[in-house]
């Protein structure tokens, strides 16, 4: 099984439930959602002209639109070769759930890693029962009911107060079915959005996600 990978790197998770957790990020190429405020637009398309070799990928030190097909064995080999210490894997994108992640996650868990998927919820989720699913719904693409019910946390991006009505619709579908952590995240560090998130989190007893990595200037 091969996956189109844009980059792999070790850092600190800056968002949601696992904020502050040392993590290895596996960023997949390809996304049909296309949020206008997306900060990884370079992952949207798998263009053949941007495909590079596995060797070039593992030596890549900047985030850009180049990508490479990598099999599971080489993903594990690269993690070991880099001597990364983190035991938490974040599979992100792009939209990682356009691919069947169950094969990759199975082998990662067998090696002792915990796994987290960051997804818009617009695609079916193929993962292990132990996989932590972070659902980040987008206003223009309503998530699948199966994704809502599978989510361990909902990390909702907020630009204006009206956005919260959209979240209410999602939470109504989740109501009484399972516990789920709710995070509000201001889009692009906008101060008005931040104030809305803080006020709502206090009222609803939800949690704030502020994309810590952007504030402390890490990847």
From TrEMBL:
Pathway: Purine metabolism; 7-cyano-7-deazaguanine biosynthesis
Binding residue positions for Mg(2+): 40
Subunit structure: Homodimer.
Organism: Buchnera aphidicola
UniProt-recorded name of the protein: 7-carboxy-7-deazaguanine synthase
Binding residue positions for substrate: 12-14, 27, 92
Protein encoded by which gene: queE
Keyword terms of this UniProt record: 4Fe-4S, Iron, Iron-sulfur, Lyase, Magnesium, Metal-binding, Queuosine biosynthesis, S-adenosyl-L-methionine
HAMAP family linked: QueE
